[in-house]
Amino acid sequence: MRKFLAFAVALFMVFSLVGCSSETPTETTGTEGGDTTGGETVANNQKPLIWFNRQPSNSTTGELDMNALSFNENTYYVGFDANQGAELQGQMVVDYITAHASEIDRNGDGVIGYVLAIGDIGHNDSIARTRGVRSALGTGIEGENGIVSDPVGVNTDGSSSVVKDGSIELDGTTYFVRELASQEMKNATGATWDAATAGNAINTWSASFGDQIDLVVSNNDGMGMAMFNGWSKAQGVPTFGYDANADAVAAIAEGYGGTISQHADVQAYLTLRLVRNVVDGVDINTGIATADDAGNVLSDDVYYYDEEARSYYALNVAVTADNYEDFLDSTVPYAPVSNELDKEAHPAKNVWLDIYNSADNFLSATYQPLLQNYDDILNLNVEYIGGDGQNESAIVNRLGNPSQYDAFCINMVKTDNATSYTAVLNQ
Fold first, then answer.
1. What range defines the domain where residue 357 resides?
2. Which of 11, 18, 119, 309 keeps 20 to 30 A from 3, CA to CA?
3. Long-range pairs for 291-298: beta carbons < 8 A, 24 or more residues apart
4. What element of type H or E holds 49?
């Protein structure tokens, strides 16, 4: 009897130990990194991956890189509707011309001449903006992939094969519309969207054919403001940009023609909100299409989701003399999603996030400050990495220990280079 009791006690202890060990998962906490769900450790290639601002795509054809966009089930892209914004910018320029018919042709030559600063000839957003302006002004030529977006160089005589002369009727008079010059604003070290290069370009163009320039158009505000401050402001030539950077919005009071807000406040929120939802293990549209426990929610007139492309897009708004005062501070979180989450219900997690070029005006002066406001609201510990705008390796080399992070938000130098990052996460 004693032997039986001893055997029974021993057997009970064995099963008790097995039961205890089976309830103890292998995990890392949010403050240590590596745990996206509050449970077992997640492999780096299964953690949330949010591409933002530069959509993985072929820089020549614009075809989306679906391998990158579907890297894992927690991969998404956040940007804005480039085509809708491009159309808005083009229409904004046309509306200005129409409203200023009596004085728009500065030298009275019957030609409304404009110059165009192109950001990056291989970037989908830049391509869309160039096409949008040319389409609205009637200067675009159809190519194999849509309206040609190549720079023309100099085209003061209207002989370019890249663009054509458009026309517009103003107060009963028909004017030609001509793209006098355009170029990719790329500096000697390879950085694109370069404001200094744009400033040099407007000085060159104005010295050669300044009285023919009636309008200045730019793919972004950084380049637009360089040309505005360098020449067009003093000459009273309206300049149109894109991004609604704070300095550009303020300059509308001084003659800057207008800009486009790509709702950076919504984009920055979506970038980190998607991370928060995955690490919390909740529905991906929590705090987006449906309210979260703090009341944050977005209306469908400021964003939409393209399920096939796994992409969230913010919608754009034209900023002109009529409404610019509403956009003077570009770093304020969007009010409907500015409620702070409870820190106990939403434990802190670590996020690795890079900005492809720390000198980029929009990303450094608008997008990153917004992210830094939202990381507090969403209780995320974000490590911000600044690139040089030229070399992918300068960023990738700083992702040396991905296991210490719970999620990754990536802004590439070139849209073709997604594998530079996913290769690290696959190791």
1. 44-81+264-315+329-426
2. 18
3. 292/341, 293/341, 293/342, 293/345, 294/339, 294/340, 294/341, 294/342, 295/339, 296/336, 296/337, 296/338, 296/339, 297/336, 297/337, 298/266, 298/269, 298/334, 298/336, 298/337
4. strand 49-52
pLDDT tens for 320-378 read 999 999 999 989 999 999 999 999 999 999 999 999 999 998 999 999 999 999 999 99
Rounded Cα distance between 248 and 92, Å, is 15
Pair of tokens at residue 376 = 């507090």
Exposure b/e, 146-160, CB count within 10 A at least 16 = b: ebbbbbbebbbeeeb
C-alpha separations of 87 from 84, 182, 240, 291, 412 in Å: 5, 19, 13, 31, 25
Which residues have CB under 8 Å from 172's CB, separation 6+? none
Residues 387-402: tens digit of each pLDDT: 999 899 999 999 999 9
Phi and psi, residue 143, nearest 5°: -115, -165
What's 213's domain CATH number?
3.40.50.2300
Q: What is the pLDDT at residue 35?
A: 55
Residue among 117, 114, 110 at smallest CA distance from 221 = 117
| CA atoms of 101 and 106, how far apart (whole Å) | 11
CA–CA dist 39, 284 (Å, integer): 18
Residue 229 lies in a domain: yes
Give the chain's end-to-end CA distance (angstroms, integer): 58
- Domain final residue pick, 219, 237, 255: 237
Kind plus residue range of the DSSP H or E element containing 345:
none
Which DSSP state fits 36? S
Which long-range contacts does 196-202 make (Cβ < 8 Å, 24+ apart)? 196/226, 197/223, 198/117, 198/222, 198/223, 198/224, 198/226, 198/227, 199/226, 199/227, 199/229, 199/230, 201/115, 201/117, 201/227, 202/115, 202/226, 202/227, 202/230, 202/231, 202/232
Please state the pTM of the whole predicted model. 0.78
The rounded percent of the chain whose pLDDT value lies above 90 is: 85
At 341, which helix (H) or strand (E)?
Answer: none
